[in-house]
Description:
The chain has helices at residues 34-37, 43-57, 116-124, 139-143, 155-158, 181-195, 213-226, 245-251, 265-278, 313-326, 341-347, 350-353; strands at residues 29-32, 64-67, 128-134, 137-138, 159-164, 171-174, 199-203, 232-235, 254-256, 287-289, 297-298, 307-308, 330-332, 360-367, 371-378, 384-390, 396-401, 410-415, 421-425, 428-433, 438-443. The protein has 444 residues and is an alpha/beta fold. The longest helix is centred in the first third of the chain and has 15 residues, at 43-57.
Amino acid sequence: xxxxxxxxxxxxxxxxxxxxxxxxxxxxxxxxxxxxxxxxxxxxxxxxxxxxxxxxxxxxxxxxxxxxxxxxxxxxxxxxxxxxxxxxxxxxxxxxxxxxxxxxxxxxxxxxxxxxxxxxxxxxxxxxxxxxxxxxxxxxxxxxxxxxxxxxxxxxxxxxxxxxxxxxxxxxxxxxxxxxxxxxxxxxxxxxxxxxxxxxxxxxxxxxxxxxxxxxxxxxxxxxxxxxxxxxxxxxxxxxxxxxxxxxxxxxxxxxxxxxxxxxxxxxxxxxxxxxxxxxxxxxxxxxxxxxxxxxxxxxxxxxxxxxxxxxxxxxxxxxxxxxxxxxxxxxxxxxxxxxxxxxxxxxxxxxxxxxxxxxxxxxxxxxxxxxxxxxxxxxxxxxxxxxxxxxxxxxxxxxxxxxxxxxxxxxxxxxxxxxxxxxxxxxxxxxxxxxxxxxxxxx
Length: 444
């Protein structure tokens, strides 16, 4: 099996303008706090999930621990019956307009240490550490006319008060032409590099529906180049604009091709169309992002109690298979410490995860309302996998002819989920596929 070493090629090197594609060789794989904790995750909860990943998932290629939205906000989640994001509330911030972890939830940040102690904890487990940020500059900094590091200008001079996120009240967009604007982003990334951040998920930026979002992507990218540390840049929310594919590939490592994906079959089925649209833009260092994996135990921080994923087991296999055939980044949304054995097996299918390899490429062969067929070929060893997806509501027998197979040769089909083998002669693959389910075969 191809080695599942998903670590940076250049993790210990200074970045210094290095091609960003040299360190995000594989689609990133990890855990993100949002689908379970919403805005309220704490340091101890992050550590518990990191401990679980190190013990149970790291050996399969999972390595990122990402703290999602509002880690800087006081009392986050305390008014969930009224707000997801409490408007105009107190935030932790330094004198240079840069948000800091709220010590209520991240006590190791005390004394100006920021996320450095938590990042070190994650690194000591052999994992990587990531954070979520919002596009722009904090409103609190703008209203206070706060300073910007290495600039004579202040926050109010670079902000655009009419350029605001539609769903989160924390930030103003930045005027890219303003003096001090690039210095602000440079100072952010310098701080994150000092903390030991390996991954940034920037929100309110990917779909470019705000007037400066496109330019702010470039500014973030430039700041990463200057910061002296290889940092993966992930853009949210989607859907990304296919006409801007070159721009995303130039400035980012990941970009969301959908809005938030939850455990709803209609949303999952729609991803076949989105993956078809983006399949030619998957390459080393550049990964269209299908969003997180809403499997396992979800939603404990959303105010309505936790729930088990509403996806059936067949739908979860479809989810994992499509993401791997397409080579999307994989980010688990579940509370890891509540993982059951079946979900763990779903996420640690070594044969399936090989499809994420550096030399693999996925392609959709056909798609209708009731079925889809994907192929994934490894250009280095010519390993070929084919996946038959039943998008309909009843079991059906599916057939696909593969031109590259010799018509008079006998092949073995090895199914990656149930581990069974079957023989075929010729180039026709045929299988009974359960409703909303998948059969995925390695052809030997």
